[in-house]
Amino acid sequence: MTLSAAIYSMTGFGFAESETEIGRIGVEIRSVNNRFLDLSFRMPREFNLLEMHLRALVKEKISRGKVDLSIKWRINPDIAPRLEINEAALETYAKQIQSVQHRLNDNAPLPLAYLLDLPGVTGGALSPQVEEEVIWKCLRSVTSQALGRLAEERAKEGAVLAADVRGQLSFISEQMQIVQQAAPEVIVRHRERLMKKIEEWREQNNATIDEGRLEAEVLFFADRADVNEEIVRLGSHIGKFTSALDKPKASIGRDLDFLTQELLREINTIGSKARDTSMVNCVLAMKGSVEKIREQIQNIE
User: Fold this and answer.
1) pLDDT tens digits, residue range 52-107?
2) Which residues are paired to 124 by β-bridges?
3) Which residue ranges make up each domain of the chain?
4) Nearest to 246 by CA among 47, 17, 4, 3
5) Whole-model pTM?
6) How many CA atoms, within 13 angstroms, populate the side-chain half-sphere of residue 34?
7) Could you tell me if 145 and 18 are in contact, meaning their C-beta atoms sit under 8 angstroms apart?
8) For 201-257, what is each residue's pLDDT tens digit?
């Protein structure tokens, strides 16, 4: 599996269980969103020496997220530790304790579990001895299966997230076009309002109009209200965002987060230049979509 083949959510679950030569092994993996990769393991102490191998295996498949990996092992009876009891020592302990009980008039039964814990009574050995390479081969196989199923679930949710983000980008593009079309009309309407006010003032004061001053005022307004540069940059960011979704790479979430900030930066600048209600409404709608995108990419690896 290649991380760059799809968009991956950081949330998912994978489980695998298999009968191996060292017994039945079950591996459960849960992951949730996190800024970095945070791994935690719960496993039998016999596997503790393999933790570094497990970490390396998980890092091959996952680059971000909080990952909890739990392992259960039902050991093969043929390699289970066999208990060896020193019967002579056991009988000696029992006689001595019973003698003390008799002197103290203590008739309580003597627990066998207590006797087995006394020094020299029992010993254990793993028979036959299992090499670390064999244990790792079995554990790696089952863990890889669980990671594969986790990846499948994360890819499915990632596809849903990506589809929603694409929808929001499409909506922003539509609103951007409305702003682009409305911008020249805003300047025309501003000039018309100025002319109307000037005509009213001239009628009341019987004064002449400085046409040059009027055009200078209109040009000044047009310059302050010009959003063409922001529209071009916003379109470029949307294109980069779409390309990133179409050809994702590992840990794409960080790149998308940066692009989201750039989208918002240009939209805010457009909003600061908006001089028309329709443009303001478009800006507010675009900001709402950017916020939805921000929420979604928090779950993208």
Assistant:
1) 999 999 999 999 999 999 999 998 877 766 667 888 888 999 999 989 988 888 88
2) 83
3) 3-77+131-155, 87-120, 161-297
4) 4
5) 0.69
6) 15
7) yes
8) 566 666 555 566 656 555 555 555 567 788 899 999 999 999 999 988 777 898 999
| pLDDT tier, 126 (very low <50, low <70, confident <90, very high otherwise) | very low
Which residues, listed in sequence order, are joined to residue 17 by a DSSP beta bridge? 26
Two tokens at 41?
A: 């393991």
CATH number of 3-77+131-155: 3.30.230.10
Residue 63: phi, psi to the nearest 5? Answer: -110, -25
